[in-house]
Design a protein that fits this description.
By secondary structure, the chain is an all-alpha fold. The protein is 56% helix and 2% strand. The chain contains four helices and two strands, in the order βαααβα. The chain has a two-stranded parallel ribbon with strand order 1-2.
Length: 165
């Protein structure tokens, strides 16, 4: 009797693992990055690195005129690290919305990075891998710090103009 109702099924009942995640590596073009980490890594951190390099360079220049060259070199190195990290974050963000990382070249023409903030990522797996791991508190703080830091920086830049009124 082949029609035993108590017999185990013989069909393949494997399911897709929609809960699989991958870690986000900052200086790597492979993988995916969600919106919150993108704002944190690609925008807030480079801005803070460059701001810190400018402050460090300004302090060195105030201490001694001969240290100005060292301050300029430190600022250029910090700027290059920030730009490279931001490019890799942009590539991973493009992968999250299931487009090629070469779309990062659109940043030359338009601020494509700002567009990447508002486009949601692919749910589940896409051609660039499984979804990125969930965000931690530090990523949310970094992402929300970006607009605050930008407004404070713009406020600092505008202060000399506002004092003349």
């Amino acid at each position: 009797m082949d029609n035993n109702v108590y017999q185990a099924p013989e069909s393949d009942i494997t399911t897709l693992d929609n809960e699989a995640t991958q870690s986000v590596k900052l200086f790597n073009s492979d993988g995916r990055m969600g919106r919150v980490r993108f704002v944190c890594y690609a925008m807030t951190i480079p801005f803070l690195i460059i701001l810190g390099a400018l402050l460090f360079g300004g302090l060195l220049a105030l201490i001694h005129d001969g240290l100005t060259v060292i301050a300029i070199i430190a600022g250029v190195i910090a700027y290059l690290i920030a730009i490279v990290g931001s490019i890799f974050a942009n590539i991973q963000r493009c992968h999250d919305i299931n487009i090629s990382g070469w779309f990062v070249l659109l940043n030359i023409i338009v601020p494509f990075s700002l567009v990447l903030i508002f486009i949601p990522g692919t749910k589940g797996e896409n051609q660039y891998g499984v979804k990125p791991e969930p965000n931690e508190t530090i990523h949310w703080v970094g992402a929300w710090a970006f607009p605050v830091v930008i407004f404070l920086f713009i406020g600092l830049l505008m202060t000399p103009f506002m004092l003349n009124f």
